[in-house]
Specification:
Blueprint: E1 2-7, H1 20-27, E2 32-37, E3 50-52, E4 60-62, H2 64-77, E5 82-92, H3 95-102, E6 106-111, H4 119-124, E7 128-131, H5 141-152, E8 185-186, E9 189-190, H6 200-218, H7 220-228
Parallel strand pairs: 1-2, 1-6, 5-6, 5-7
Antiparallel strand pairs: 3-4, 8-9
The structure holds adenine.
């Protein structure tokens, strides 16, 4: 899978994709992540990509021209399944959306900034708008990093234990059960006996019961979704 990210702050995205699972997924050619500096497509001599808003609104607006030039060039090189704009007023990102996007071949993410983009970008160039939560970030780069991370770890072969992505919290609208490792007792705090029993059936039952209890206590909204499905 290939993910292209268009941003005015490419430096902000240097870190997240060069460590751990995302780094390994790229080395194994499971994922290709390309970060592009939007200013490359500016025709302005100062490489500006923003301008004042019409109508006297405060704050700068990202111009349509460099964005259109960038998207057109990338689209000429490959077909994108989705062209996503990160914005606090987009559809809320969740595990189900991450699963859907992980099945695609090519996606392009445009990171929003300032007051936003010229609305014609949203009307004509974008296929989907995604928010990572009901709060406002200074820009869409961290949202793009979150979306990319959640997608790439789902790609076959990205996790060393392929089954573990399926047992994540949210994968079936339930929170994951607690996990423990050695020592079996620390400071008098014991690991639940059942996990040391070797009885796989009992262990699975315990995990399910823990998932249900934790979801009921911490995320009753998810439990309702689980019961409805
Ligand atoms: N840009 C600013 N805030 C955002 C959010 N919550 N999600 C996605 N993009 C954003």
């Amino acid at each position: 899978m290939r993910i292209d990210i268009l941003t005015i702050l490419p430096g902000l995205l240097n870190g997240p994709f060069h460590h751990s699972i995302l780094k390994r997924a790229q080395e194994k050619n499971i994922a290709e992540i390309h970060v592009h500096d939007l200013r490359k497509w500016s025709t302005d001599k100062h490489r500006r990509v923003d301008d004042y808003a019409f109508g006297g609104e405060a704050g700068m607006v990202m111009m349509i021209e460099p964005i259109d030039r960038a998207i057109s060039q990338l689209k000429a090189e490959r077909k994108y399944d989705e062209i996503i704009y990160t914005s606090p007023d987009g559809e809320l990102f969740n595990q189900s959306l991450a699963n859907q996007l992980s099945l695609m071949n090519n996606i392009l993410i445009l990171c929003g900034h300032y007051k936003g983009v010229d609305h014609r970008v949203r009307e004509h160039l974008i296929t989907r708008e995604i928010s990572i939560g009901d709060y406002v970030l200074t820009g869409g780069e961290l949202a793009a990093a979150v979306i990319t991370d959640a997608i790439v770890r789902l790609l076959p072969g990205a996790l060393s234990d392929g089954s573990s992505a399926l047992s994540d919290s949210f994968q079936d609208n339930l929170l994951a059960p607690p996990v423990y490792t050695r020592p079996a007792e620390y400071n008098g705090w014991k690991v639940p006996e059942v996990l040391l029993s070797g009885d796989h059936k009992k262990i699975e039952e315990w995990k399910m019961q823990q998932s249900l209890e934790r979801t009921k206590k911490l995320r009753p909204d998810l439990l309702k979704k689980y019961e409805d499905e």
